[in-house]
Amino acid sequence: MTPSNVAKNLWVGSYPLYGQSLLFDRLIFCAKEFQPKEDVFCDVPVFRVPLPDDDRTLTPKEWSLALQAGRVVSWWMRQDKRVLVTGWSGWNRSGLISAIALVTDGMSADAAIKKVRAARGPNALSNPHFVRLLERVYDASELCLAV
Fold first, then answer.
1. For residues 134 and 124, is the Cβ–Cβ distance under 8 A?
2. Looking at CB atoms within 10 Å, which of 16, 69, 83, 106 has the fewest?
């Protein structure tokens, strides 16, 4: 599936073809069951965020990694790096990381979810555990702003 532009410098999609990868400055691989070999995308830096996409919530370690990845994506976007966040199909895990990046930049969780779904379709962020976690990120960021 062709990558979808979610925001300035942010795309979400499934595994990129080699030629597609050269369109981006950074690649994020989120599928736990699929992490390409180190030398496959030697021209583009790769950040690995191996997350499951099932009917359970993330472990604290997985959640910490997802938060870190979302913040890194946000930073890269602000540095004018073209970032592609990928999962298996480019819906849930990649949607979560992308939405965390958008929330990090000040967007509400609801607006971030809508933006990802508008770009990737109604199946994006259909994992209810991910949506709840994303809402927690937004609540926490609001708490920090209120202090």
1. no
2. 106
